[in-house]
Write a sequence for this structure.
């Protein structure tokens, strides 16, 4: 594993990515390009293939066809985690439940023996403080709320000093206030360490609040890519329906 | 149960290849080792005592009636050392520790903790499988030595206390020494080492192969225990056949 050297974000390019599970095609030839240091949001309804795409980008799934290029270099799925410093903030946080919060955050450094235990403790405290969880180091993940778990997961990602962070539904199951905190964390990271961020979400507020560019995906196909303004005005019934979906409260008389 | 044999052998091979990393994982190996000992020692003690006791009771009365009281110590001794100690303890550990391994790794799989490890370039085999397999491969043979000793003691207590047999403690162990050689105990310990590898690899494999939610974890635990026990019994025969030669 390469020791952290610089914090500049990487570019990412996906060409013709295809994936099927049990004969059902989930990704039908995805093409996208993410620029270094930008926050790129992938939006789409549940089951549209967003999370599967994310898993391909971090090497947890191997594509049936297609290519992934990082900084212009073609990479195999099994070499992504070894070649680049990448981090993923899972939907559930995916903290190791048998370890304390501090051990979770310092796990990468401890397992790869990149720092001494004293240095790791210091770094863990710094990163936890950065996400507003200064005194949580000795707590177990089971003692934390959903929002706190996600912030710990972000702290764990920060320790890697990643060149690319992938967020899988970072605000799902969170109340609006916690969602805002997570959105702010994503923005802070972009400005502080210039990391490339790829956010998968169906939270419209988060997407339009943090994104430099947005891609809308449906049934394994990218429908449009553009700035938030461009996507907002993209003339496609499915995109417009997704962006403006709202329920109408029927009048009591009609009930 | 044999459809995953290839995957199990591959996991075993990958674990063997990661053996040079064992020293780095020593803390986790120690944690697992103490967990196995802590979880099993009392059960091993009780089970072994009564296995030895019932063995002496079942065979002793028949042997004494035929004037073979001198054979009771040897029979209990050799049965505990070569068969009952290793096999019964391995089955107990498959139920107690194999199930825990499959459940823990299975739940880590279901709740994406293993995916999180992989994204941090931490190999789950080095981090999860290797420490567990080394710990069980060391702990089980030690538990079996302990079990053999306690089983002998249980047999001796019953042989002396039972009015029909009334074989003195000293005579029981003297007869036992005449029949049981060190290689018989070594034979049992070697078998238990092989069984430990079976339990470790099968249980870790089931854990890593877990899919679905809590039901998937339950299924993995059941399969880990059942498959381990079946393989223990099959390998017991094969190893006995090889070691007899």
């Amino acid at each position: 594993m390469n020791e952290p050297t610089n914090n500049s974000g990487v570019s990412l390019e996906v060409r013709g990515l295809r994936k099927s599970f049990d004969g059902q095609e989930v990704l039908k030839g995805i093409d996208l390009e993410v620029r270094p240091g930008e926050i790129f949001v992938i939006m789409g309804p549940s089951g549209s293939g967003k999370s599967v795409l994310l898993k391909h980008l971090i090497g947890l799934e191997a594509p049936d066809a297609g290519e992934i290029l990082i900084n212009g270099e073609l990479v195999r799925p099994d070499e992504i985690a070894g070649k680049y410093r990448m981090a993923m903030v899972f939907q559930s946080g995916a903290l190791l439940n048998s370890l304390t919060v501090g051990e979770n955050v310092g796990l990468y450094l401890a397992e790869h023996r990149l720092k001494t235990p004293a240095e790791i403790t210091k770094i863990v405290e710094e990163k936890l403080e950065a996400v507003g969880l200064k005194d949580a180091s000795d707590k177990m993940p089971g003692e934390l709320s959903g929002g706190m778990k996600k912030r710990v997961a972000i702290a764990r990602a920060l320790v890697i000093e990643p060149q690319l962070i992938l967020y899988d539904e970072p605000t799902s199951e969170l109340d609006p206030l916690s969602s805002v905190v997570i959105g702010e964390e994503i923005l802070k990271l972009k400005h502080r360490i210039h990391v490339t961020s790829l956010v998968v979400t169906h939270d419209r507020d988060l997407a339009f609040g943090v994104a430099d560019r947005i891609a809308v995906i449906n049934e394994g196909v990218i429908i449009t890519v553009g700035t938030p303004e461009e996507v907002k005005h993209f003339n496609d019934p499915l995109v417009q329906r997704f962006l403006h979906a709202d329920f109408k409260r029927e009048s009591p008389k009609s009930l | 149960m044999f459809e995953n044999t290839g995957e199990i052998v591959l996991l075993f091979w990958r674990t063997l290849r990661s053996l040079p990393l064992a020293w780095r994982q020593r803390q986790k190996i120690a944690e697992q080792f103490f967990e196995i000992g802590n979880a099993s020692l009392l059960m091993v003690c009780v089970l072994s005592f009564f296995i030895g006791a019932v063995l002496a009771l079942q065979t002793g009365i028949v042997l004494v009636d035929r004037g073979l009281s001198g054979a009771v110590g040897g029979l209990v001794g050799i049965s505990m050392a070569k068969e009952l100690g290793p096999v019964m303890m391995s089955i107990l550990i498959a139920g107690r520790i194999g199930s825990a391994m499959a459940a823990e790794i299975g739940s880590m799989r279901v709740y994406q903790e293993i995916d999180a490890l992989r994204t941090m370039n931490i190999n789950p085999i080095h981090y999860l499988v290797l420490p567990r397999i080394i710990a069980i491969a060391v702990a089980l043979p030690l538990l079996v030595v302990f079990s053999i000793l306690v089983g002998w003691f249980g047999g001796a207590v019953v042989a002396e206390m039972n009015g029909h047999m009334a074989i003195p403690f000293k005579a029981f162990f003297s007869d036992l020494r005449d029949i049981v050689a060190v290689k018989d105990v070594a034979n049992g310990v070697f078998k238990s080492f092989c069984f430990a590898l079976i339990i470790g690899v099968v249980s870790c494999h089931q854990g890593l192969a877990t899919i679905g939610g809590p039901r998937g974890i339950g299924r993995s635990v059941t399969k880990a225990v059942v498959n381990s026990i079946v393989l223990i019994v099959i390998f017991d025969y094969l190893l006995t056949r090889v070691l007899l030669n």
